[in-house]
Amino acid sequence: MTAHVLDPPSRERGASPRAGAVLRSLTRCQIDDRLQELGDVYALSAAGGEDARARFLRRLASAVRRPGFALLLAGNTDPTGLAYGFPVRGEGPPGEGLGAYLPTGLFQLAAAGRLFAIPETVVPPETCRQYQSRDWNLARRLQMRLLHDHGAALGVTLVCRGDIRMLEVLRSWGWRYVPAGSGAHPPALHRALVLSP
User: Fold this and answer.
1) Which of 90, 125, 174, 180 would bridge 110 by S-S if both were Cys, CB 3.0 to 4.6 A apart?
2) What is the pLDDT of residue 141?
3) What's the distance, CA 34 to chain centroid?
4) C-alpha to C-alpha distance for 81 and 48, rounded to whole angstroms
5) pLDDT value, residue 89
6) The sheet that has 70-75: what strands, in order across it?
7) φ/ψ (deg, to 5) at 181
8) By C-alpha distance, which of 127, 189, 181 is closest to 156?
9) 132 touches 173 (CB < 8 A)
């Protein structure tokens, strides 16, 4: 999950903006055609320079190959953010991959095609600080639209346990912690969070 936080979250309240960014889905072909532009959106939202941008593009290229992959791009004249994800499949051993972080109960949801992974949400830093709990917050809109478009009962994401600021931002957007997976040796590096549409 990526939504870079540069300053502490704000609990500020305010009215909805008059015109929010338009959200539109991109097909795999459109993603291929606009890959550099998507990298630019990431670079404008995240610190880390060209290396971070290149890693993002590799992650995106890998995710695009997953069945059911979807990407939403936000913006009016210029793109301002994006989020992508894919359905979590119910097959395979629970102790491997994403399954190592999930409780057994979520595998039934995955088997029914109702669990949707959102590995990255790329938004401007102010989205992480301002109006986090508002429905019109750009990150919340991107995430909720992905879940609604795919009929998901729950969204799931992984975050490094040490990334306290990102965990706080996700919680302010409505994500909540889930118990550790049921594998014999639950991994300690990441934490799974879920989001109800």
Assistant:
1) 90
2) 93
3) 19
4) 17
5) 80
6) 22-26, 70-75, 79-87, 115-122, 154-160, 190-195, 176-177
7) -65, 175
8) 181
9) yes
Span 126-155, average pLDDT: 87
Specify the DSSP class assigned to residue 153: S
Computed on alpha carbons and rounded to an integer, the radius of gyration of the chain in Å comes to 16
Torsion of CA 189, 137, 73, 48, to 10 degrees: -50
The token pair at 140 is: 């919340």
Distance, in Å, from the CA atom of 166 to the CA atom of 141, rounded to the nearest integer, reads 18
Q: Does residue 53 register a pLDDT over 90?
A: yes
The per-residue pLDDT for 117 is 94
pTM of the model: 0.82
Taking each continuous run of H as one helix and of E as one strand, the counts in the chain are 7, 7
State how far the alpha carbon of 138 is from the alpha carbons of 28, 163, 172, 190, in Å: 23, 21, 13, 25
The residue with greater pLDDT, 18 or 195, is: 195
The CA angle 125-16-172, to the nearest 5 degrees, is 50
Which class for 19: exposed (0-12), middle (13-18), buried (19 or more C-beta within 10 A)? exposed
Tokens of 162: 């040490």
Q: Is 27 helix (H, G, I), strand (E, B) or coil?
A: coil
Work out the widest C-alpha separation in the chain, in whole angstroms.
Answer: 51
The tokens describing 157, both together, are 């994401």
The answer to whether the beta carbons of residues 138 and 81 sit under 8 Å apart is: yes
Q: How far is CA 144 from CA 22, 181, 187, in A?
A: 14, 24, 28
